[in-house]
Write a structure and sequence with these properties.
The structure is a homodimer. By secondary structure, the first copy, chain A, is an alpha/beta fold. Chain A folds into 2 domains: about 220 residues, 3-Layer(aba) Sandwich (Rossmann fold), CATH 3.40.50; about 90 residues, 3-Layer(aba) Sandwich (Rossmann fold). Chain A is about 45% helix and about 15% strand. Chain A contains 14 helices and 10 strands. In chain A, strands 1-2-10-7-8-9 form a 6-stranded mixed beta sheet, with helices on both faces. The first copy, chain A, has a 4-stranded parallel beta sheet with strand order 5-4-3-6, with helices on both faces. In chain A, about 60% of the residues are buried. The model of chain A has no long low-confidence stretch (mean pLDDT about 95). Chains A and B meet through helix 6, helix 12 and helix 14 of A and helix 6, helix 12 and helix 14 of B.
Chain lengths: ~325, ~325
C-alpha cells in the first residue's frame, strides 16, 4: 500500500525529472474567492498534467529487466502522456490504449512521446481484451491510472510540495481542493498532507453528473456515475472511485464539492486572465470550487490544484468567448 | 549604480513577496529549437510580468517618510501594474501616467491595484509636463521604468534565479535571451549572470522596427527607433536604449536578435500549446528568437525569459487563429 515512505521514495526518484510546480496567487481571484486563493499549477508539469509524476514513479519503480520489456496503459489522455514520456526517458517501449474520441491533442502528443497508440471504440470494443492480448504477447507491464500504489505515491509528491509551500506562506489550516477522477491524485495528496501538514484537509472536486466520489463519500460506499462520457471535463470522467483509492479518501478527505461545466469553463477563462496559465476544464474544477463554492469552505486560505492543461483550441476558444470577452 | 550587491539586497527585500518563477521546458519546443530550450516564466510573476520585481525593489528601497508621500510612474502597462501593486502592498499612494491607447486590460488592472490612473494622448499631450505637475504638487517620488538603479537591481533578481536554476540542470554555458525594451531587465540579468554564472551570456531580443538595442550594440552608440507605437509588442516599444542601461548592456551582452511580429505571435501560440502559459507578444520575442533564430545561437541549451502575459483577448485570439488552429 501507499504510505508516506513510499511517497518520499517516489519524490527521490522524481528529483531532477519532474518540475516543482509553483503555487500561484492573484489579488483578483482572492476577491472572488473571499479569501486568499493559492493555485498549485500542475498544468506546468511535464506533459501538461500531474500524471507525469505517477507515470514516472511507476515506471522508475519497476525492476530493470521487467521495465525493459515495456509498459502499457489505458487512458483518455493525461495518464497516457505521463506514462509515455516516462517510458521514453527510460528508453523502454510503451503501448497506450486510447478511446478513439479522446481529444486530438492528447492522442497526437502521446504518439509524439514515442508511444504506440492503439485506438478503441468506446461503444463497440472490449478495451480490456485488446490491452490484455497486446500485454501478454509482448510481456508489457500494465500501469493503471489510479488504483496502483506507485502511481498514488507519485501523485503524492505533489502533496509534499504543497505542504512545503503552504508552510513558506505561513498557512497552517486550509482546505486543499483536488480535481478528482479515479482518486489517485486525491489519495496521494491526502496521504502526504496527513503526514506533513495535518492542518490541511483534502476536498475532492468534480463536475455535475460525474460526482461519484462526492456521493461515495456521503454514502460511505462506492457509488457509480450514470454516464461515462459526454463532458468537457473528460480528464476526470471515471466510472467510480477506485478500490484502492476510495478507502484512503474515505478516511482522510472532507466532503466533496461539485461544480457545473459552465463554472469549470469560467475558471478556465479566469486562470488565463489572472494567473496566465492554461487549464483544461477537468483541471479547473478545483479552482471553480474555490471561486464559486466559498460558502462551503472555511478559513482564510484555500489551496487548489490546477491539475492539467491539455485541451483542444476549440474548447479553449469556447471558454474565452463566453467568459473572457474584452 | 547597480552591482551584484544591490541585486542581492533587492532579492532579500523581495523574499516572500515575489514568486520564484519556474524554468519550464518541453520536448516539442526542443525539437523546433534544435537544442534544449528553457523558458523562465515571468508571466507567472505577480501582476503578470517581471516588472513587479523592479517596482517592489524601488518602492521598498525608499526612505519610509519619502515612500509615505507616494510614488508616480509613466508606463504603457506592465511597469504600471508592478509599481501599483508594490505601492498598494506598502500602503502608500500611487499615480500612474498611461497613454490612452494602452491595452484596456493593463489600464483596468492598474486601477484595480489601487493606483490613480491619469491618461494622456500620445500625439497631443506633454506626458512629462502632466506627470511633473502632479508629482511636485503631491511630493511623489518618480519610479522610472528602466533607467533607475533600484529598478535594474529588482529585475536582476530574475538573473539570480536563472543562475541557480541553470546550475540545477547542469547548464554552464548558454545564451540567455531577454525581451528588451529600455533594457532594464536585460541589464539586471546581465549583471547578475556576470557575477553568478559567467558562462551564461545575455542576448537582447526585439521585434522588427523596434530593434534600437540591437542596432545600438552593433554601432556602439545609442540608436533610436523611427516609430514609437503601432506594434503588437507594445510592452517593449521604447524610443531608445537607456542612458544607464545601455553602457551595462554594451559591456556585457552579445549581439541582439530581431524577430518579426508574426514570429512573436507564433511563439505566443506555442507557449499556450506546449508550456501551458500565457505570453503577450512583447513577452514572447525571446522565445521566438530561441525557436526561429537557431542558426544565430550556439551550444546545447538556450534559456529565454517569457517576460509578461498581459494581453487583450482579441490579440490572443489572433495568435490562436493563425498558429494554433486544431
Amino acid at each position: 500500500m501507499t504510505d508516506i515512505t513510499r511517497i518520499e521514495a517516489a519524490a527521490f526518484r522524481l528529483q531532477g525529472h519532474a518540475l516543482r510546480t509553483p503555487l500561484l496567487g492573484s489579488d483578483f481571484l482572492n476577491q472572488i474567492a473571499g479569501r486568499r486563493l493559492w493555485l498549485k499549477a500542475e498544468c506546468l508539469q511535464l506533459t501538461g498534467s500531474f500524471k507525469f509524476r505517477g507515470g514516472w514513479s511507476a515506471v522508475s519503480a519497476l525492476e530493470p529487466e521487467v521495465r525493459a520489456r515495456g509498459v502499457i496503459a489505458y487512458s483518455s489522455g493525461n495518464h497516457a502522456q505521463g506514462v509515455a514520456l516516462a517510458a521514453q526517458r527510460h528508453g523502454v517501449p510503451c503501448v497506450i490504449i486510447m478511446p478513439s474520441d479522446a481529444p486530438r491533442l492528447k492522442i497526437d502528443n502521446t504518439r509524439a512521446y514515442g508511444a504506440e497508440v492503439v485506438l478503441f471504440d468506446r461503444d463497440r470494443d472490449d478495451r480490456d481484451a485488446i490491452g490484455n492480448a497486446i500485454a501478454s504477447e509482448r510481456g508489457l507491464t500494465l500501469i493503471k491510472p489510479y488504483d496502483e500504489p506507485e502511481v498514488i505515491a507519485g501523485q503524492g509528491t505533489c502533496g509534499l510540495e504543497i505542504a512545503e509551500q503552504a508552510a513558506e506562506h505561513g498557512i497552517r489550516e486550509a482546505d486543499v481542493l483536488v480535481c478528482c477522477g479515479g482518486g489517485g491524485l486525491t489519495a496521494g495528496v491526502a496521504l502526504a498532507l496527513e503526514s506533513r501538514a495535518p492542518g490541511l484537509r483534502v476536498r475532492p472536486c468534480e463536475p455535475e453528473g460525474f460526482d461519484d466520489t462526492a456521493r461515495s463519500l456521503a454514502s460511505g460506499q462506492i457509488e457509480r456515475n450514470a454516464r461515462l462520457s459526454g463532458t468537457l471535463c473528460d480528464a476526470i470522467a471515471t466510472p467510480s472511485p477506485g478500490a484502492i483509492t476510495f478507502p484512503i479518501n474515505k478516511r482522510l478527505c472532507g466532503p466533496g464539492l461539485v461544480v457545473s461545466e459552465d463554472e469549470a469553463l469560467q475558471a478556465v477563462a479566469l486562470a488565463w486572465l489572472r494567473l496566465k496559465i492554461v487549464l483544461e476544464p477537468g483541471g479547473a474544477v478545483a479552482l471553480a470550487a474555490a471561486l464559486f463554492r466559498r460558502e462551503s469552505l472555511a478559513g482564510d486560505d484555500v489551496i487548489c490544484i490546477g491539475s492539467g492543461g491539455n485541451l483542444d483550441t476549440a474548447i479553449f476558444r469556447m471558454a474565452m468567448d463566453r467568459f473572457a470577452s474584452a
